[in-house]
């Protein structure tokens, strides 16, 4: 049996790639007229600029590059302002059925759809769940088909689809509904993308958040007492002193699971508090000229290596997954753990009142509350027949009814003020979220900078933790991945 | 591969058929024409299916490999640049090296272990042979993803491997095996050894069962011990099976994906990346479908070459 399977896999892989190619290749030509228009205009602008570039001689490459990026920028802002004709915000009254494809939190999504239906009985939302890996892989095909779902949960792949004209520009609805005031700015900015589909944080709004995520510091109060730590750390220096105390008391300071994404949470959180938030956003968003080869990023990376060599977290980190490291913390095996709000429910169940959550301690006392985070957000197909009904649903996501559902789903509601009271670690999360939103300190995950960034980050951090790579070489490798994608 | 061989065989049949009808063709042109056409008609269904589902996608993959394409937006022609990158980018090159190292664990070790087990089990006809077969074949029945997850836990910091080491007083050796830069590839390789030893043992036991017991008896009468018996009787008789086992397991090593994906996903620090993993990553995560296709084509060519070499070596001996 193994004999047939494995060789067949190579062929199957090739065939799969070919199939994807065949389907993808068909769509731009046959279905999406708008998509071919976009690509045509971008090629023509590149063509014209290279013509002028060749006149200037040896500088033609850089010349044409800047020219095309300039034209891309202007066309992006043009499309945003061309959305000036006001769109209606009245909720349609005829019977409408909307389809919605999603992958995160089935319970919450279903509850949101039901609550919306209860409020507007003429609109029904049929939800369609797909397991995450399959969702990511099938998303491009689903959205470029002739009958895509009206509402689709945001994923990084949507950036490309937006560039192909398959995702609706929501900027007119943002203006009509005033979402810029009813949703946190940092959360909305993460969902803006320019016309090339590569630069985030600027251009048209393509999705609206239903719930925010936030990475921060979990602490075990019982173990803190055991190690002689009186209060959660207020600064990064305090945090390091606490790790030293834990070590002296024979306890494990941090549990880190860098076999997959766990190392990223440690490094990202250190980066968050050491480096200017806007510079970090610019880098993740792909703003031209950004670099991560900075003294602050170097310091953050050095700290990761230092924590490893000092034994603040176990040497087995590279062989431990993020989930397993959370489990270790839940079993009381470490004093601290850096992870996202998604781990809170599991940790609260295991540790009860023993566990607390705070934002990553700032570099200096009284510093701003910052943290990595993103959102569960929904985008809209450009082919939807009912844009008004869909917009009404997106607007519904910040209503008090939706806020309650989002909080129960384990997310931080975008409308932080309307969040229901919570106790224990979940209450800590709400407080931390309000602080971060108040300080405009939400920073998108670093791996969003380029599709290949996650693998580069994971393997690079493993090398830094294992002492196999110099921090500066690690940052250089990240920057080269960034440059390749944004070239 | 099986389908590939079948296709090649069909092609050979087609060649012979055409050759045999080609000679009288000069004499009776019209009748021959008809026979040629009817031959093609018989072949058509197989050729059509094979072409549509194997050859065409393969050719299409090659076509895609000449483009820079993210899977959605318009592709741009880059010619053979993707192939240049396959051979020059350190990550892609090192992945091929890792696959070659895995041959040791997926092919060489299982075959050696399989031979040892066969030597022990096949010297005498004994009761309960089918029970042994089932036991040794068991790892082959378990889905590879389940195998991967199980081993990931066994290799963990407080997993079975370390518990065993501590139990026998080797606590100083314990570590998170999949997290060690020098040992992770070995650890992944041993999962393959565990899985594939069942396959080779099964093959060799079947081959050894065909050996005339009189051969063993006469060897014993000539005063041969167990070792001499193995090298003089069992091993030569198993040449064909060894060839098959070598082909299958080498392909398993070069095209490995599932075990690596589940256990380490290339970690730590890309020390266990293999070409199959990178094809998947490049195509479905990184949005570099052209480069992924180029790597897949190179991997296929490499596998074909290796299989060709193995078949020539083993087949050549067989015909003596």
Automatic annotation (TrEMBL), chain B:
Keywords of this entry: Cell membrane, Membrane, Transmembrane, Transmembrane helix, Transport
Membrane topology listed for this record: Multi-pass membrane protein
Cellular localization per UniProt: Cell membrane
UniProt-listed CDD domains: TM_PBP2
ABC transmembrane type-1 domain segment(s): 96-310
Pfam families: BPD_transp_1 (PF00528)
PROSITE patterns, alphabetized: ABC_TM1
Cross-referenced SUPFAM superfamilies: MetI-like (SSF161098)
One BP annotation, GO: transmembrane transport
Principal location: membrane
Gene Ontology cellular-component terms listed: plasma membrane
Transmembrane region(s): 37-59, 96-122, 134-154, 183-206, 242-262, 291-314
Family (UniProt): Belongs to the binding-protein-dependent transport system permease family.
This protein's name: ABC transporter permease
The species this protein was found in: Nakamurella endophytica
């Amino acid at each position: 049996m193994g004999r047939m399977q494995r060789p067949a896999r190579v062929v199957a892989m090739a065939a799969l790639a070919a199939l994807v190619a065949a389907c993808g290749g068909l769509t731009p030509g046959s279905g999406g007229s708008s998509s071919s228009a976009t690509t045509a205009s971008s090629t023509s602008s590149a063509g014209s600029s290279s013509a002028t570039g060749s006149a200037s001689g040896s500088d033609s490459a850089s010349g044409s590059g800047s020219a095309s990026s300039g034209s891309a920028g202007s066309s992006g802002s043009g499309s945003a302002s061309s959305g000036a004709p006001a769109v209606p915000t009245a909720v349609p009254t005829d019977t409408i059925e909307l389809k919605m494809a999603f992958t995160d939190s089935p319970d919450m999504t279903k509850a949101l759809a039901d609550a919306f239906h209860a409020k507007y009985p003429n609109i029904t939302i049929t939800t369609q769940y797909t397991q995450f890996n399959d969702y990511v892989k099938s998303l491009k095909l689903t959205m470029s088909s002739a009958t895509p779902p009206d509402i689709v949960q945001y994923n990084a792949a949507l950036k490309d689809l937006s560039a192909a004209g398959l995702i609706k520009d929501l900027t007119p609805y943002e203006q009509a509904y005033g979402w810029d005031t009813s949703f946190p700015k940092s959360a909305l900015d993460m969902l803006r993308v320019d016309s090339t589909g590569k630069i985030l944080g600027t251009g048209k709004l393509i999705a609206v958040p239903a719930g925010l995520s936030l990475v921060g510091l979990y602490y075990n109060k019982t173990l803190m007492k055991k190690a002689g730590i009186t209060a959660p750390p207020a600064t990064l220096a305090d945090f390091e002193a606490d790790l030293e105390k834990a070590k002296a008391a024979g306890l494990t300071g941090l549990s880190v699971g860098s076999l997959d994404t766990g190392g990223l949470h440690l490094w990202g959180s250190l980066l968050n508090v050491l480096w200017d938030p806007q510079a970090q956003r610019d880098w993740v968003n792909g703003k031209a000229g950004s670099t991560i080869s900075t003294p602050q990023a170097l310091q953050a990376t050095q700290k990761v290596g230092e924590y490893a060599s000092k034994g603040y977290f176990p040497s087995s980190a590279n062989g431990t997954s993020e989930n397993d490291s959370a489990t270790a913390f839940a079993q009381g095996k470490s004093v601290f753990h850096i992870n996202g709000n998604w781990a809170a429910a599991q940790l609260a169940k295991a540790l009860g009142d023993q566990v607390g959550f705070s934002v990553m301690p700032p570099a200096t006392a009284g510093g701003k509350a910052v943290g990595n985070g993103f959102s569960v957000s929904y985008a809209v197909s450009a082919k939807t027949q009912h844009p008004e009904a869909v917009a009404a649903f997106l607007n519904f996501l910040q209503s008090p009814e939706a806020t309650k559902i989002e909080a129960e789903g384990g997310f931080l509601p975008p409308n932080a003020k309307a969040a229901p009271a919570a106790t224990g670690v979940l209450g800590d999360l709400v407080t931390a979220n309000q602080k971060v939103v108040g300080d405009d300190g939400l920073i998108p995950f670093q791996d969003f900078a380029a599709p290949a960034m996650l693998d580069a980050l994971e393997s690079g951090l493993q090398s830094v933790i294992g002492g196999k790579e110099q921090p500066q070489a690690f940052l250089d490798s990240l920057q080269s991945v960034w440059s390749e994608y944004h070239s | 591969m099986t389908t590939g061989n079948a296709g090649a065989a069909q092609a050979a049949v087609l060649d012979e058929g055409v050759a045999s009808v080609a000679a009288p063709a000069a004499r009776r042109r019209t009748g021959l024409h008809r026979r040629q056409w009817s031959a093609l008609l018989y072949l058509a269904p197989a050729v059509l299916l094979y072409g549509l589902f194997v050859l065409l996608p393969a050719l299409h993959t090659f076509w895609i490999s000449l483009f820079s394409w993210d899977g959605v937006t318009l592709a741009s022609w880059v010619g053979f640049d993707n192939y240049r990158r396959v051979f020059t980018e350190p990550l892609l090159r090192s992945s091929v090296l890792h696959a070659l190292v895995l041959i040791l664990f997926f092919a060489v070790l299982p075959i050696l272990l399989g031979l040892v087990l066969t030597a022990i089990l096949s010297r005498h006809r004994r009761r309960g042979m089918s029970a042994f077969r089932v036991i040794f074949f068991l790892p082959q029945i378990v889905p590879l993803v389940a195998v991967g997850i199980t081993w990931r836990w066994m290799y963990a910091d407080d997993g079975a491997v370390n518990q065993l080491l501590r139990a026998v007083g080797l606590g100083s050796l314990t570590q998170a095996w999949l997290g060690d830069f020098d040992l992770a590839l070995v650890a992944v390789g041993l999962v393959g050894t565990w899985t594939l030893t069942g396959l080779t043992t099964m093959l060799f036991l079947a081959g050894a069962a065909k050996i005339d017991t009189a051969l063993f008896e006469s060897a014993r009468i000539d005063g041969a011990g167990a070792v001499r018996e193995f090298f003089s009787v069992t091993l030569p008789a198993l040449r064909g099976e060894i060839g098959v086992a070598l082909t299958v397991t080498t392909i398993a090593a070069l095209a490995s994906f599932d075990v690596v994906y589940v256990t380490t996903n290339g970690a730590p620090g890309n020390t266990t990346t293999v070409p199959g993993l990178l094809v998947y990553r490049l195509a479905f995560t990184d949005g570099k479908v052209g480069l992924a296709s180029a790597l897949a084509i190179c991997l296929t060519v490499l596998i074909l070459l290796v299989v060709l070499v193995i078949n020539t070596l083993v087949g050549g001996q067989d015909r003596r």
